[in-house]
Amino acid sequence: MIEKNNKLSSKKDSGKVIMTAVSYVFITFFTLACLLPFILMLSSSLTSEKSVIINGFNLWPKEFSTLAYKIIFENPKDILGGYIVTILLTTIGTALGLWIISMTGYALQRKDFAWRNKITYFFYFTTLFSGGLVPYYLLMTKYLGLKDNYLAILLPGLMSPWLIILMRNFMKSIPHSITESAKIDGANDFQIYTKLIMPLAKPALATIGLFLALQYWNEWYNAMLFLSPNVEHRPLQLYLYNVVTQAESIKNSAANSNVPPQDMPNETIKMAVGIIATGPVIIFYPFVQKYFIQGITIGAVKG
Amino acid sequence: MNTKIMKTNVSTKKNRGQFLRTLKKNKLLIIMCLPAILFFLIFSYLPMPGLYLAFIRFNYAQGIFNSPFVGLENFRFLILSGKLWELTKNTVLYNAAFILIGSSLQVCVAVLLNEIANKRFKKFSQTIMFLPHFISFVLVGLFAYNILSFDFGVLNTFLRSVGLEPVKAYSTPEVWPIIIVVTHLWKSTGYGSIIYFATIMGIDPQIIEASQIDGANVFQKIRFIILPSIRPTFVILLLFSIGSILRGNFQLFYNMVGSSNSMLFETTDIIETFVFRALINNFNFSLGSAVSLYQSVFGFALIMVSNWVVRRIEPDYALF
Amino acid sequence: MKTRFKLLALLMVLVLIMGITGCVKSGETSGTQGQMTEENKSGDISKTDSTEDGEELEFVELTFLMMGNVPTNGQLELAMAEWNKILEEEINAHLKIEWVEWADWLTKYNLLMASGEPIDLITSGDWLDMWPNAQKGAFMPLDDLLQYAPLTSADITAEEWETCKLDDTTYFFPEQNYTQYVNHGFYYRGDWAKEFGIDKVTDYESFGQYLQGVADNKEGVVPWDANGSKFDLYDGWIISETDSLELLMVPTGYHKAVWAESKENKYTAYSPIFNDTFMEFAKTMQEWGDAGYWREDVLNFKGDTRELFKAGQSGADQHHTQTYRGLRWEMDNLIPGSEIGFYPFGSTRKNLTQLSIIHGATAIGANSQNPERAVMAYEILRQNEEFYRLFVYGREGVQYEIVDGVKTRPEGYNDADHEFYTDFWSGREDKFELPTDTEYAGIYDLWAEFDSYAIPDPYSRFIFDRTPVEAELAAISDVTSALGPAITYGKTGDPEAAVVEYREKLKKAGIDKVLEEVQRQLDDYKVMVEGK
Question: Chain B: residue nearest A30 by CA?
């Protein structure tokens, strides 16, 4: 008995050692590949424009300069306002979106729900056909009156067919017996969902929540379309995007016959903007990750 | 149960009774779906008739539905270009590569991450792998140029320093599919592996324990427990991507290849980049709508077929 | 939503009541402006204790659509407060700027046109699809509104008005009183050219010699570090090697495929791409490329040539006269003695067209709520010096001060805190413009030289209707944008074969049909012009 176990474990061990080695090598390699460009970005954003133009990007600043950051932070009001708006939109949007997505996802995986396929198809169809930019713009501005309204960013990002179906799939792993026994105990569908399913679906909520949050964090297109500059505080990404395009377009626009020449540190600004947009994610993601992993491991169904 | 009754009843009256019964029986479930249904009704279905733009000469003053109807006029430039087949082929092949290689690599990363015991290393590497997702394509294109440029690129500087021939990446179309696919993988793998990682974390630890007691080694664990648990997500992802297989990632191609290096076009031109060049100074909503409609119909046909196939094999994995 | 609706209803009721009591002040009935302000004052008195809604009726908020990013240093608001004082005084209105930011500006601009939002004044012009937008009903006809801008309208000649009309309806105020040349050419280092024994670059041949000089003598400098998005090499060639005139209204992408033959045959359309001169061009550019006048990967290079030129890393740069005006001054300070020279393409064969007066033009939005007042505001902008300078330059003492009739930067001015712009490019007035101390003093001589041979824009009234050949234009745009850059920068390896292929593809894309259509419309245009 003991011998057998030993044999087994040694066999297991050799496999495990190989696997662990492969894992470390592969993940390390890939991590480095992801890290390098980021270091390049950081270093370039702290280099003088002239040096970047002449020597290209380097992993270490040849000529140190913080001009790019100075230009961006010239208006701390905008950056700060941008952060606040973005954080608010992200938290509200993620919470609201998660609630609706999980509720829908739960309903759609109930085997006793006769119309689940029809409704799923109803959602999915929207990924195939869309009205296009003009009708969408008219709907939002003319018919819903959402111009210059934060709802124009909050609402469209709330859910996507992809997230709903993903949620449905995650929920499928929760045994149907839980629902059935609760039904026998006289709980209604909504109670089952809030009391029983939600706690069990933590890993799904964590994952989908993360996707939603990132999407809100990166959102600039709807903001560009629907929030005119009259709106005092606009999402961070839009502000940053504008800083970059401003530098670009002044030089390239058809009308620049009329724009006074400007010395914009074009290249380094792009890098600095990249750093500012990504920075918070690097700082906060490990924290989120902690809860994320906790949520997932706690949420694992104990049969 | 209900579906059985449905099949036996054909009269409309009974059908209506059936309908109401289902409604009543699933009342709460339907109510739970209602917010989402309303959402898609308003934001997706309401603008959908606007696809009519593809068939009109749009006049702002008259509005979409009173503008003159021009039939297939707006689709003509696709045919005129003589490139429709090449563009379709390129777009589909690239997307197929992205989907298949991309998903596999994501699964790979998730499985291997799961095998790493060191918590700190795990956390660090996961955060870092996430980063490329946030680097805008504009920067990615700049970096690529900095590496690959013939006169000043890092790669050629290195090659010259060790006495090798410098490469002319920007006039060698054959290498570009590889460069593009690698760039895409680099950018999306870390982000995409989250789904799989979450799925793996969600596996009941008791099952894994039980398998270990039964003497399963690490490879068997992966093969018989982890991969099967990932499969549904994998298939769903696949199906989802098929519907948009004709929609290319404009930002990626535009920033990597640019819009003027025709030497690389045979291997890198996709529908989106073509449309961009065609409409660059002839701004026209209707032509854009026409292209979009073509992509939609193509994707629609493809997804209907694939979903039907999946349903025949494993109904549980089908999208609808 | 509901409250908004209620407010609207309340407003409507108020409007009605005021209409009945005859308290509405609008331009329609008032005679002079003095009378109007009188009316306002009486209105004010009669409504001392009325609600805020009443005040909204009192004031009109006008919007002016501009291209540019919203300034964030607060200077615009300060200037706006000043100019609104004037406007309040004169026509009891406020004018604020609605920006179309550079991020995706073309999409955004056209969406605003398509969605019919109630914008009052709109920046338009030949580079902003003015005629297609007018055809699509984006703008309000101006004929009945001109009375509200009497001085500005009187200042525009009948002939000039003709250029602003579509089907005998006026849609635009032109920018007819502003001198600027935006004809393109090359900038080069005058000091280097002297070194290589070149006195002045006057054509492609001497420019080539200059570039060769840089390649031979200036280690580490790219003769012309172009980036592939620049297409003017081809335009420049056609302008300096032939007498062709540009037909800007026929958009064909990277290369302008359709030109008019010459001053003499200005109503004859043709495509220079199918002539020997284009083959000559392709071969010459292959030579230039092989000689390393630009970098190997020019088509993918996205660098900033102007910055490189300033840094002495590029031997040449390419843009137009207006940019030269500032650049020359800047370089004189940056690298004293650099003597930046300018070779305008048109100088070779004296082939130059004056800038169209509708390069920048102002329109009234089709759904403007206060078109009369908008036109009045525009009149003030173009006739009131104080207002004009506030709007274009900013506040005196902060953004600028006038020393001996020259505009200078005040002590303590810095861009970050004080930079000001409204990007008003559609109705500037020479009479209010000031010479500045940040421009090349020789610009006026250059203008005089141009004036001596430039012809007035012969196509100012030619409105090309694209609709019959929309598909062909799109297909041609793809072909020129795909193959054009490679030929322009000599990247094909075999220019002759490339040109043959290029011509074939253009034929396939329907160039002949486009030429026919352009010719047909030019014939009609000729009848219209000569018939008068």
Answer: B129
Q: Name C524's Cβ contacts closer than 8 Å, sequence gap at least 6.
A: none
Is the CB of residue A261 less than 8 Å away from at least one CB of chain C?
Answer: yes
Cα B227 from Cα B200, distance rounded (Å)? 9
Which of C69, C108, C313 is facing A246, going by the closest CB pair?
Answer: C69
Whether B110 contacts B126, CB under 8 Å:
no
Q: Which residue has the tokens 């006039």?
A: B171
The reported pTM is 0.85
Burial class (CB in 10 A: 0-12, 13-18, 19+), B38: exposed
Give Rg (Cα) of chain A: 25
Q: Are strands C406-408 and C60-67 parallel, antiparallel or unpaired?
A: unpaired
B143-200, pLDDT tens digit by residue?
898 889 887 788 888 898 898 998 899 989 999 999 999 999 999 999 899 888 888 8
Q: Check C477 against B279: CB less than 8 A apart.
A: yes
Q: What angle do CA A218, A221, A227 make, to 5 degrees?
A: 110
Q: Would you mind telling me the total number of residues written for chain B in this entry?
A: 320
CA distance B54 to C374: 35
Closest-CA distance of chain A to residue C115, Å: 6
Contact C151, C383 (CB under 8 A): yes
User: Exposed, middle or buried: residue A199 (CB in 10 Å: 0-12, 13-18, 19+)?
Assistant: exposed
The tokens of B182 are what?
């690698």
CA separation for the pair B203, B212 (Å, rounded): 14
DSSP C350-385: T--BPPPTTSSEEEEBTT-S-HHHHHHHHHHHHH-H
What is the rounded CA–CA span in Å between residue B7 and residue B18? 11
Question: Burial of C52 by CB count in 10 Å (0-12 exposed, 13-18 middle, 19+ buried)?
Answer: exposed
Does the CB of C77 have a partner CB in chain A at under 8 Å?
A: no
Q: Which helix (H) or strand (E) segment is A248 a member of?
A: helix A236-252
**CA C353 – CA A131 distance, rounded (Å):** 44
Instruction: Quote the tokens at residue A13.
Output: 């061990």
Nearest to B77 among C229, C296, C471 (CB): C471
Q: How far is CA A257 from the centre of its chain?
A: 40
DSSP H or E run through A175: none
Token pair recorded at residue C188? 């080069």
Query: Measuring CA to CA, which residue among B264, B295, B108, B246 is closest to residue B180?
Result: B264
pLDDT bucket at A204, cuts 50 / 70 / 90:
confident
Q: What is the dihedral of CA C103, C104, C110, C115, to 10 degrees?
A: -80
pLDDT in tens, C208-226: 999 999 999 999 899 999 9
At A5, list the tokens: 């176990």
Q: What 3 state SS string does A66-92 have?
A: CHHHHHHCCCHHHHHHHHHHHHHHHHH
Q: Which of C110, C253, C472 sits opposite B283 (nearest CB)?
A: C110
Residue A138 CB partners (closer than 8 Å, separation 6+) = B47, B50, C114, C115
CA distance A134 to chain B (A): 8
How far is C479 from C257, CA to CA, in rounded Å?
Answer: 10
Segments in C401-469 forming alpha helices (H): 415-418, 443-453
Give all chains having 3 or more CB-to-CB distances under 8 Å with chain C.
Answer: A, B
With contacts defined as CB-CB under 8 Å, which chain A residues touch C304?
53, 251, 266-267
pLDDT for position A156: 95
